[in-house]
Amino acid sequence: MAESAAPTSSTGVAPLVAALPPESSSFASPLDLSVVVPLYNEEGSLPHLIEQVLAALRPLPLRFEVVLVDDGSRDGTPALLRDLAGRVPELVAVLLRRNYGQTAAMAAGFDASRGAVIVTLDGDLQNDPADIPLLLQRLQDGNFDLVSGWRHQRQDAAVSRLLPSLLANMLIGRVTGVKLHDYGCSLKAYRRELVSDMNLYGELHRFLPALAFIEGARIGEVQVNHHPRRYGQSKYGIDRTFRVLMDLLTVWFMKRFLTRPMHGFGFVGLLCLGLGFITGLWLVAQKLLLGSDIGNRPLLLLSVLAILSGVQLFCFGLLGEMQMRTYHESQGRPIYRVRATLRGAAAG
Hints:
Blueprint: E1 3-5, H1 10-18, E2 31-39, H2 46-57, E3 64-70, H3 77-85, E4 91-95, H4 102-112, E5 115-120, H5 132-141, E6 146-151, H6 158-176, E7 188-191, H7 192-197, H8 208-214, E8 219-224, H9 240-257, H10 261-290, H11 298-330
Parallel strand pairs: 1-8, 2-3, 2-5, 3-4, 6-8
Antiparallel strand pairs: 5-7, 6-7
Helix pairs in contact: 1-5, 6-9, 10-11
């Protein structure tokens, strides 16, 4: 379960962040911080976004970069990024060939980044870059691997955005076991080693805390600001509900059965086989002992269907076990994650 924290005044945050030495163990990397921002048709907000991010980070004694990923925008965003990349030394512009979706854009930003800590936020100015020091402080003080923002005073439409988001947060928390107030907030801070352990596919960016939990991450939460959208239009609609539900089933299965798929498929397969055999034996007994006609009985169809389903589920389980081994062995990925290895002085 994630730990929450209320926002701290900026006067209390700056000294704590400033006290972080650039070469500390938590920020030992070619860069201390990478800010990853996926963009899609954000020409109007982009100049203001860069201005606010630089204003929030340049006073801090951290080496940072701002990785802006254009996800196939159809407006002037790509041209503006090319211009800004020539004038802003901290800026890294990644231009994708077409619109792949937010998950792919975030994955591209993670791959292009070099910071020991990665902060993500939206490019529509609804997230406040001034809150980035809050996340860094929470990450450091709580010794967390991931800190998620909580838009406690969210500036969105109540019916079309707030209510579905509230229901989704409750459902996701219950299914995944990671209880956050605001899964949909893009403002998050990750340690580099955590991001390196996660592979993103489909539209799983909404479930990054749950995926991080699968990897054994310690997760915290902090209240952040949220502003009304001033430029462009929202890219989200009610149609995303179906995709969220499908992705939620994927994350649930990964959390429960990623390294033991046979336990999932095999259990249901046993139930089906047991039901099929018991029903079949009952029908055989009625045929042999009572002489009943079972050829047109619905139970006969149920018995055959249950047995076939059980065999298929067992086959799925075996295939899943083989795929799981291929997934881990081909990439050299262990089925465990080590947080630290401590050796005595005599061990050398």
